[in-house]
Amino acid sequence: MASKHGTVKFPLWQYLNQPLFSSTTKLELNPRRFCYVYRVKLLERCLAKECRSEGRRPKSTTDD
User: Fold this and answer.
1) What region does 41 belong to: left with phi over 0, alpha with psi -120 to 50, or beta?
2) Assuming Cys at both sites, which of 1, 12, 28, 47 could form a disulfide with 34, CB separation 3.0 to 4.6 Å?
3) Total Cβ atoms within 10 A of residue 38
4) For position 53, what pLDDT does the model report?
5) What is the spatial distance between Cα 59 and Cα 55, in angstroms, rounded to a whole number?
6) Residue 57, class by beta-carbon neighbours within 10 Å (0-12 exposed, 13-18 middle, 19+ buried)?
7) Residue 19 CB partners (closer than 8 Å, separation 6+)
């Protein structure tokens, strides 16, 4: 049984709204291939984001 958390459902809206006559993006008619490319691009966008650590700050070594 697959986990419901962490799975990406098929991006139906993005699939249906692909630009038809674009010179910058390729039209992908195969739904499996589109889903694969979409997931790769999603992962690239997520990894490109900068995030700040929300952990504790290290204590300074100098005593005030």
Assistant:
1) alpha
2) 28
3) 16
4) 66
5) 12
6) exposed
7) 25, 27
Query: How does residue 37 score in pLDDT terms, banded at 50, 70 and 90?
Result: very high
Whole-number percent of the chain with pLDDT over 70: 69
Question: Residue 29, Cα to own-chain centre: how many angstroms?
Answer: 21
- Give the Cα separation of 32 and 34 in Å (integer): 5
50: three-class secondary structure by DSSP = coil
Check residue 25 and give its pLDDT.
86
5-23 pLDDT, tens digit per residue, is 666 688 899 999 999 888 8
